[in-house]
Backbone:
């Protein structure tokens, strides 16, 4: 493979670069080195490594964040250059294998919570820059987070080798000569470092991305990562490239959508820091992703609803003493109207978003609306920017369901509804996954089949033996 | 109904002051129980009550008193809870509910000026405080970081650390005041517990202009935020617990407090340390109510000072039409003021004051005026538009001196639970009245600089009250002339502390809440000293809770 044969040269070059730095001789190598580190840092930002590998309030890249997955909680590891607790002893080849093939330095397999299936697309040059930055730009932290302990059978990491055989395409990105350089740059970022498909592509029973439905929308815990294909109704087909760039840069596109939940984190940690050129490239590529249409989306998801209110039904009417009996209009008046205004129109400058012509209320998939009512929006992490209060502590399941359904009916897709059971489930962290149980059942079936085969085989051998005796 | 409640620390009153003391102690590992006479309210329902009420101008209307824990109501008529003994009326407003009176406030979070605590030494009036401004500074800072204070640097109150937040965006009207009054007067942004950006898990102010009766979006720090912070820290809150007696043992230590539930069932709560934090009226009421054979004048009252030295901030004002459209009502209700008159040699002659500009929408009051004047039809529309755009108002906030005859006593009348109502004895002294006269020249000058017409001074001898209840349980070093020591501990009872604006020995010119909180944090720090390295205002536990 080309990657293998190409490896020693850049590594040697890198050693020379650092040797030059420490010797303090050549200014040219210094600036080359600085450039390499800066590029590595930029690429690490694009890859959003920090999102998983940093715990809230913890040191950058020191790991420790518990990542809930359908097969159990995976604890992100320390990827600082610590020689005792991090990846300080990794060679560039080992770093590359972890990043692009999901294989640790000790040969054990990573779980695909680490998006190596996407990172497999990263070029050799970029791996080199990333390696340089992780080794020399990141401060080592000598504390190791508690190791991941998954339930059987997923605690056997070798099982991932079989998974990789089925689902890992380890070929780096190859540019399409028929497309522009901008398109190719966008495709490289979307498919590789930005690993958009990790969330936005639906997964099969074995949690692998369904490549035939690329970017058609997936589930991220309790949140729904929506369709971002070029479909005019279900996806972003109706968005201009500048809408997409604004969304990635600011976390909202006026009159269309705003980032919340994990997407707000992605904007906060990664997308907003990308260069205008790269954001433009991503937009250019996304606009060409093959459309995936959901027949339920009978019109564009950001064109539903209109300004309206039911104030006349409220004035002078006493609130019911049972909070669960409050009407949608009463709940809206009490908890929403002070910011989103009487008729859901938001503020004149869009700083407080309108609730109609908003993907938050325009989708038939309503989990995100529930989640944003429960959790609010709060980013960046220092709390200085976008903030919508969460109402998890304030509103009951029934109240969220009544309010959410009211919002959908007045300002969004009237075919969509929210049930109290749905709210209850999302509040509790989402529907439990049966993957562990399924895997165990599958193993039992396999074992039973094996036992049956062995039994049959033994029986046959005995029969043969008896027959032989008789012969 | 006789479940036995007990805690290391028992706090009576769940207002912003008591709750933040409770939070600090709970973070230190103490078990903390907060007893609140009133019910627990839900912000959304208060917002809905306000939005759907035809009464918009009366800020108490979304807070009807509960039968078991009444509070004073004056509109549409006096409910007779706070009895008035005169000679001057003292129509104080406060809220008995979980979170207390700061459910509605202008969020003014002012520090004193350094000389406020030495007016006896410097100007021969009032009393000195048992501490310096410098001693208060770190506690002010901790309070400001907790409740999220935004402010401008040049208000006369020095500080060692920056404000947690830059000032809230200046409304147009205030900008014009600032520009047109310069250089005669420096108009600066008020120091407020209101977010100018996201802070503490709460959003920035979006300018609903209903700070009173309710901030609908949680941009303004309320007592209920303090209660929730105390709960996150581990404190337990018991609502509808009307404390009616504090019980002492033979040695004079506090052994328990007794409360009624709404059905008048009785409960006894024991503890190691007790904090009385039920505001400057209900707290002295409770001390007086708890009289025993050993303490016939009430608890903590060997000095006979409990309830005395009642102070507030009276105000006179001017209303006029500016010669340009200012459209009050955009942004917070009270954004800016003039702070240069808070201190000076004149304090030996008359009270200092702050000049405060209202930014409350004038539409309601102008409408009422026009109806009263009999204006109607197209002329009404025309006048309403013109006046609402041009009408402005400035008030002074005057210091009053501690006077033992201004006091809270027990009335012979009782409330529905059979508990004596509080009674106010109040007058406004010459020191304050002289300042009101002096400030008229400022009013005239401000009106002149704004091209004012239709000047209307508040009626001669009429003072509006500001609900800054102070002084009724003053702190001091001498047990003969004060109720608590410099750390809020009652001179008479080793394990009874008071956290309240009521411990302030003088009222100065500033809204009292921030000083009340700073003193309460200092008291909490005295009860359970904190290791120096654990002085973070917001704990990690709280950060995580606010993220979850």
Residues:
């Amino acid at each position: 493979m080309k990657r293998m044969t190409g490896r020693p040269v850049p590594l040697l070059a890198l050693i020379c670069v650092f040797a030059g730095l420490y010797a303090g001789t050549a200014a040219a190598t210094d600036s080359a080195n600085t450039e390499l580190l800066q590029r590595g840092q930029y690429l690490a930002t694009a890859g959003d490594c920090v999102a998983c590998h940093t715990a809230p309030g913890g040191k950058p890249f020191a790991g420790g964040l518990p990542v809930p997955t359908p097969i159990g909680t995976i604890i992100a590891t320390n990827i600082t250059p610590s020689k005792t607790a991090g990846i300080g002893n990794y060679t560039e080849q080992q770093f590359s294998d972890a990043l692009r093939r999901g294989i640790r330095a000790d040969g054990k397999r990573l779980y695909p919570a680490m998006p190596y299936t996407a990172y497999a697309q990263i070029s050799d040059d970029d791996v080199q820059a990333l390696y340089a930055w992780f080794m020399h730009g990141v401060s080592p932290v000598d504390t190791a987070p508690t190791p991941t302990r998954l339930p059987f059978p997923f605690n056997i990491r070798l099982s991932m080798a079989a998974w990789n055989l089925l689902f890992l395409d380890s070929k780096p990105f190859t540019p399409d000569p028929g497309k522009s350089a901008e398109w190719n740059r966008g495709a490289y970022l979307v498919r590789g470092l930005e690993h958009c498909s990790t969330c936005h592509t639906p997964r099969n029973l074995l949690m692998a991305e369904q490549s035939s439905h690329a970017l058609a929308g997936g589930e991220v815990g309790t949140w729904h990562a929506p369709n971002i294909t070029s479909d005019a109704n279900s996806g972003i087909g109706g968005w201009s490239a500048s809408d997409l760039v604004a969304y990635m840069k600011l976390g909202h596109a006026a009159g269309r959508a705003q980032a919340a939940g994990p997407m707000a984190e992605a904007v906060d940690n990664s997308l907003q820091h990308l260069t205008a050129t790269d954001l433009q490239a991503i937009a250019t590529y996304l606009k060409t992703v093959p459309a995936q249409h959901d027949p339920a989306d009978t019109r564009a998801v950001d064109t539903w609803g209109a300004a309206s209110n039911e104030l006349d039904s409220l004035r002078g009417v006493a609130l019911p003493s049972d909070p669960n009996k409050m009407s949608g209009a009463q709940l809206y008046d009490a908890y929403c109207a002070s910011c989103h205004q009487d008729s859901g129109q938001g503020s004149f400058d869009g700083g407080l978003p309108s609730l109609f012509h908003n993907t938050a209320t325009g989708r038939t998939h309503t989990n995100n609306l529930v989640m944003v009512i429960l959790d609010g929006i709060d980013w960046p992490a220092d709390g200085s920017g976008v903030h919508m209060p969460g109402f998890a502590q304030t509103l009951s399941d029934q109240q969220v369901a009544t309010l959410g359904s009211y919002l959908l009916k007045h300002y969004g897709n009237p075919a969509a509804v929210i049930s109290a059971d749905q709210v209850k489930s999302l509040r509790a962290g989402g529907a439990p996954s049966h993957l562990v149980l399924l895997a165990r059942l599958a193993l039992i079936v396999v074992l039973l089949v094996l036992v049956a085969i062995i039994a049959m085989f033994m029986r046959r051998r005995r029969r043969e033996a008896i027959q032989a005796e008789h012969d | 109904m006789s479940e036995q409640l007990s805690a290391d620390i028992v706090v009576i009153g769940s207002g912003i002051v008591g709750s933040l003391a409770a939070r600090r102690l709970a973070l230190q590992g103490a078990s903390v129980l907060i007893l609140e006479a009133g019910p627990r309210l839900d912000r959304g329902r208060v917002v809905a009550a306000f939005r759907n009420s035809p009464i918009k101008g009366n800020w108490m209307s979304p807070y009807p008193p509960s039968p078991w824990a009444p509070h004073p109501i004056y509109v549409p008529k006096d409910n007779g809870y706070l009895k008035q003994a005169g000679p001057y009326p003292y129509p104080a407003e406060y809220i008995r509910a979980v979170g207390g009176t700061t459910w509605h406030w202008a969020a003014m979070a002012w520090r004193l000026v350094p000389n406020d605590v030495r007016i006896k030494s410097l100007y021969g009036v009032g009393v000195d405080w048992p501490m310096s401004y410098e001693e208060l500074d770190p506690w002010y800072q901790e309070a400001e970081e907790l409740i999220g204070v935004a402010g401008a640097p040049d208000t006369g109150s020095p500080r060692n650390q920056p404000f947690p937040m830059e000032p809230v965006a200046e409304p147009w009207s205030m900008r014009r005041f600032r520009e047109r009054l310069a250089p005669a007067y420096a108009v600066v942004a008020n120091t407020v517990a209101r977010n100018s950006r996201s802070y503490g898990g709460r959003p920035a102010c979006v300018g609903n202009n209903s700070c009173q009766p309710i901030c609908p979006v949680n941009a303004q720090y309320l007592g209920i935020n303090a209660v929730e912070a105390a709960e996150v820290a581990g404190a337990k809150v018991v609502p509808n617990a009307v404390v009616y007696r504090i019980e002492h043992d033979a040695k004079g230590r506090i052994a328990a407090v007794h409360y009624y539930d709404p059905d008048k069932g009785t409960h006894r709560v024991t503890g190691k340390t007790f904090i009385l934090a039920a505001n400057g009226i209900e707290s002295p009421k409770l001390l007086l109510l708890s009289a025993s054979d050993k303490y016939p004048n009430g608890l903590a009252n060997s000095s006979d000072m409990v309830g005395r030295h009642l102070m507030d901030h009276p105000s006179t004002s001017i209303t006029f039409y500016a010669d340009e459209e200012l459209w009050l009502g955009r942004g917070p209700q009270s954004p800016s003021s003039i702070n240069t008159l808070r201190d000076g040699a004149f304090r030996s002659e008359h009270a200092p004051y702050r000049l405060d500009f209202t930014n409350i929408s004038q539409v309601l009051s102008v409408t009422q005026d026009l109806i009263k004047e009999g204006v109607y039809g197209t002329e009404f529309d025309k006048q309403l538009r013109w006046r609402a755009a041009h009408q402005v108002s400035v008030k002074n906030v005057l210091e009053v001196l501690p006077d033992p005859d201004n006091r809270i006593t027990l009335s012979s009348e009782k409330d529905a639970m059979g508990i004596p109502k509080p009674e106010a004895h109040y007058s406004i002294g010459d020191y304050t009245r002289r300042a009101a006269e002096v400030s008229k020249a400022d009013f005239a000058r401000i009106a002149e600089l704004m091209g004012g017409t239709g000047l209307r001074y508040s009626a001669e001898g009429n003072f509006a009250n500001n609900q800054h209840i102070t002084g009724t349980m003053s702190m001091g070093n001498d047990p003969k002339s004060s109720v608590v020591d410099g750390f809020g501990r009652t001179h008479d009872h080793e394990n009874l502390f008071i956290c309240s604006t009521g411990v302030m020995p003088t009222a100065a010119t500033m809204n009292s809440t921030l000083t009340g909180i700073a003193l309460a944090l200092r008291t909490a720090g005295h009860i359970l000293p904190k290791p120096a390295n654990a002085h973070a205002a917001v704990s990690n536990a709280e950060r995580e809770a606010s993220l979850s």
User: Anything to note?
Assistant: Strands of chain A lie at 66-69, 72-75, 218-220, 223-225, 252-253, 257-258, 377-379, 386-388. Confidence is low (pLDDT under 50) at residues 1-24 of chain A.
